[in-house]
Amino acid sequence: MAQGPGRAVNRRSLLHGAAAGTAALALPGVAGVTEARAASRVADAPALARAGRPGAPWGVQAGDVTASSGLVWVRSDRPARMIVQTAATESFRNARTWHGPLLGPGTDFTGTTALHGLPSGEQIHYRVVLADPHDHRRTGEPVTGTFRTASDRRRDGVRFTWSGDLAGQGWGINPDLGGYRIYEEMRRRDPDFFLCSGDNIYADNPIEASVRLPDGRIWRNVTTEEKSKVAETLAEYRGAFRYNLLDANLRRFNAQVPTIIQWDDHEVRNNWYPGQILDDARYTEKNVDVLAARSLRAFREYFPIRTLRSDRGGRVYRVLRHGPLLDVFVLDMRTYRNANSPNRQPDDRQGILGAEQLAWLKRSLARSRAVWKVIAADLPLGLVVADGKTDFEAVAQGDPGAPLGRELQIAELLRFIKHRRVTGTVWLTTDVHYTSAQHYDPSRAAFKDFAPFWEFVSGPLNAGGFPAVPLDGTFGPAQPFVKAPQRANVSPAENPQFFGEVDIDGDSGELTVRLRQDDGQVLFRKVLQPGRVGQPGS
């Protein structure tokens, strides 16, 4: 990646202080199951917290950062007023003060403060101070973080990582393995931001204290009361989002790398769709719409997302503009979809995006002047993801012929991109719990009215690995790379976890994708050229 003189070295040195500050806030006992359970129970009940000054043991995070703005998040251990200070240096000399919301039980003691008028392409140091709402002089220890605003100078380039699927299939925070180690590797990569492609929690996967692996070893989990069953109540969904913040690696990462967050099915329940009525004995609440509303409220409380506001509702899909090189189009392939089915209907107006989101995406792509348009999808396009014996969960259904079902909506979108000559589209996703690269080309496809493009898959962050699924020939995918286990639900102790990395060079405009595993090893690399409607294959 092209960068200004000494950018990487200087930035890492600046980040070191924030890492140390966040590490100092580690929750007590996180290295052991019993101690962590006891600590989390105390921390999960702010109303019963000991008398004293407000604290933020869950750390801080920033999100939806642009060239001039960003959001800062915190959770307090009791009622408090959120105050944010920003500065150009760690000394916080000439700091600017931002008065945030009052944190209380209505938002599970979480809050987000919007920052505006920030300088472009600069390292922003911030600290969150929590003040007693009845005595502003009584404040807790400041919690520090940092992020870099998007640069309006093309030559600075862009680097980001992406992945998804955290604490899935019962594989939670394992202190014997050092917790969520993949976050430490991604932090070392020093990305400008992290794109999480969904399944931030597994609300339908309880976390047990221990699991016996096939080779006889014991996998140990940090556990909490809320994660001992499937999430149904608002408190249980909140507890599921809070569980991941028990991991010190994730808290350090959050303090240094801003996020772009989307959601998928496991924020609510596996393969859910609007209007679904569950046939699952684990649930007393069978109406998925009720569960989804509760989860979305907790999701909004625990992540800084500019289009989701407690006073306005809002939506998950949005576009984040990251300077002249990159726009990120965040999709929601869950909230507006039709029911899972055999997916072979000859007419499908609703599809997987819904009509309103599809119209928004077309308009936004057509208006974009960025060199690269990353379409952040929470599900793959040409991979056949089944839901039971007869129904399908994603876009494809295994019929290699003309588009049917949800494929019709994607065909309409791809046709629009070609005819409006929208250049530089790249699809990124996760969901299937392995890593792969797909190139789509009309010369191989049943549907031919589109320009070639690439789709890259990476994940999970910390979940079970699963075998590769078949390809659907409708849009002509070829798969030059795939790495997946041979059996289902392989634990992170037995199978690498995966993330992807994107570098956009400021001089040439080239976009390089690297598919990595959790030790940083590069498994696959692809360089794409700017200014093209379509991209050649391998």
Task: Kindly describe this structure.
There is one protein chain. A hairpin with a 6-residue loop joins strand 25 (498-504) and strand 26 (511-517). The chain folds into 2 domains: 52-147, Immunoglobulin-like, CATH 2.60.40; 154-528, Purple Acid Phosphatase, chain A, domain 2. A 7-stranded mixed β-sheet has the order 16-17-18-21-23-22-24, covered by helices on one side. It has a 6-stranded mixed β-sheet with strand order 13-10-9-25-26-27, with no helix packed on it. The longest helix has 17 residues, at 7-23. Helix 7 (355-367) packs parallel to helix 8. The protein is built from 8 helices and 27 strands. Helix content is 18%, strand content 26%. It has helices spanning 7-23, 33-43, 181-188, 234-243, 248-256, 288-302, 355-367, 407-419, and strands at residues 60-63, 70-75, 80-87, 96-103, 110-115, 123-132, 135-139, 143-148, 158-163, 193-196, 210-212, 218-220, 259-261, 308-309, 313-314, 318-322, 326-330, 372-376, 386-387, 391-392, 425-429, 435-440, 453-457, 477-483, 498-504, 511-517, 522-528. It is α+β, with helices and mostly antiparallel strands and 538 residues long. Mean pLDDT is 91; it is low at 1-50. This is Alkaline phosphatase D. Residues 166-515 form the PhoD-like phosphatase metallophosphatase domain. Keywords: Hydrolase.
